[in-house]
Amino acid sequence: MTDGVGEPTGPAPGDVFDRRMLEALVCPETHGVLTYDAERQELVSRAAHLAYPIRGGIPVMLVDEARKLD
Question: Which family does this protein fall into (predicted)?
C-alpha cells in the first residue's frame, strides 16, 4: 500500500502474514513452536492449546487475546 506518492504506508488490513516470522516467534506461554493456520489467520501453539490471531499481517502474541483450542 502506498500514500499516493509511491511511499509505503505499512500493511493493509488484508495483508498476508510473512511466514519467515515463524523462525523468530515462539509461544509466549510455553516458548514452544508455532504453526501458521492461513485459513484462520492464526499462529497455533499445540503445546499450549492456544491460537494467536494475526491482525493486519501482525501476530498478536498475547495469551489474553489467544483463542483456546479444543
Answer: Belongs to the UPF0434 family.
